Amino acid sequence: MTSDRKIQIVIVGGGAAGLELARKLGSRYGRKRHDIILIDRNRTHIWKPLLHEVAAGSLDASLDEVGYRSHCHRWGYRYHYGTLERIDRTARRVHLAPVLDPKGREVIGAHTVRYDYLVLAYGSVTNDFGTPGVAENCLFLDSQAQADSFRDQLLDHCLRVSRAMSEDPASDARVRIAIVGGGATGVELAAELYNAADGLSYYGLEVFDRKRLDVTLLEAGPRILPALPERLADAAREELEVLGVKVMTGVAVTASTPLGMETRGGIFVPADLQLWAAGVKAAPIREGLDGLRLSRGDQVIVRPTLQSLDDERIFAIGDCASYTPAGSDRPIPPRAQAAHQMADTAFANLSRLMAGIPLKTFVYHDHGSLVSLSRFSTVGSLMGRLVGGRMAVEGRLARFVYMSLYRMHLMAVHGRIRGAMLIFVSYINRFVRPRLKLH
């Protein structure tokens, strides 16, 4: 490496892990001797655990999203708009697919970007497990665009029902929604839908209320929220059923049709809207990762230092990385707290690798799980030194901790001062902004 060439660190994926790492590297090294490049197929970032609120209309994503171009200008890195197509490890280059406009016209041609160090942080997508009809008939919550699409279709169906009731007060018109997957996403969305239904009467749908929602939550396992203690999962189920959600456990979906879900037990669940949230897998790369070893879920298998098994110059963090700690038989779960911790370790190890000193071992600290049932309830468990083990939490304390997770993300992405200001602004917006985003 010649002395006049900058060290180029390329990060593919601007999710929680990638964006936090880009900020840290840009803040530490700037542009004098380093070139930090973040590549993402979107122009803005929004914290993925918030997508269920965007889908229900409870959150205006335009207030919480981070524009990569303005963010990179502030923190000293560069942003490339594009999608990873493949890696050439020999030439140390990433190949990016052409960028097309909505009419299929080329905006940016296919090109390559060199790297000295590469960090893969391109995240995950919903895993439909090859279930027939799911790709054609179901909606997903992997991106803001998908959440916006769900919200628009939800509002259209609510408007249809409201109109039918205005014309015929005796009408039994309903909005039927089937959600597959009893994990955090499915449970949180089911509750958020009732919060949205309560708010619609304030915005022109005077004859519409939550009684017109038929929400069915289908889970193939024996109970919802398997990451939580059984008592808390039962409490969440009870809260959902009080709201009006029909919770069906031990029911596997075998196919999706335009009219609803078919199940292994022969039960047909009719639905106007179908959302699949039953599992995740690493986002697929069109032409592969040049021989990097992958897990069964297409995640890059990494060493304890978060370097790939096959190339010490390539790291993988977040949902696209598979790391199984010594003594464990399962990899670290794809969760926001894991992504945050991996970004910290990757930052430290990139600095150490460039300085020629030994790298750190990634140690995952499970701080527990929290699930928000909108404004109705929050349940979860906390783990760690603070509570001396595992502690079940519910109500206001759980809600406070749940909101603190997002505030920590804001601090990591924007820095302490700007992050604190954004938290204050979000508090003010609760009083001055509409309860629902209806456009």
TrEMBL record:
Which ranges carry the FAD/NAD(P)-binding domain? 8-343
Query: What processes does the entry annotate via GO biological process terms?
Result: aerobic electron transport chain
Q: What is its EC number?
A: 1.6.99.3
- What Gene Ontology molecular function terms does this protein carry? NAD(P)H dehydrogenase (quinone) activity
Keyword terms, alphabetized: FAD, Flavoprotein, Oxidoreductase
What residue ranges carry the coiled-coil annotation?
none
Q: Which cofactor does it need?
A: FAD
Name the domain of life this protein comes from.
Bacteria
* InterPro entries referenced in this protein's UniProt entry, alphabetically: FAD/NAD-bd_sf, FAD/NAD-binding_dom, NADH-Q_oxidoreductase
Span of the secretion signal?
A: none
Give a Pfam family name.
Pyr_redox_2
The Swiss-Prot or TrEMBL record describes its family as follows: Belongs to the NADH dehydrogenase family.
| The protein's name | NADH dehydrogenase
Q: Name its species.
A: Sphingomonas kyeonggiensis
Q: What is the lineage of its organism?
A: Bacteria, Pseudomonadati, Pseudomonadota, Alphaproteobacteria, Sphingomonadales
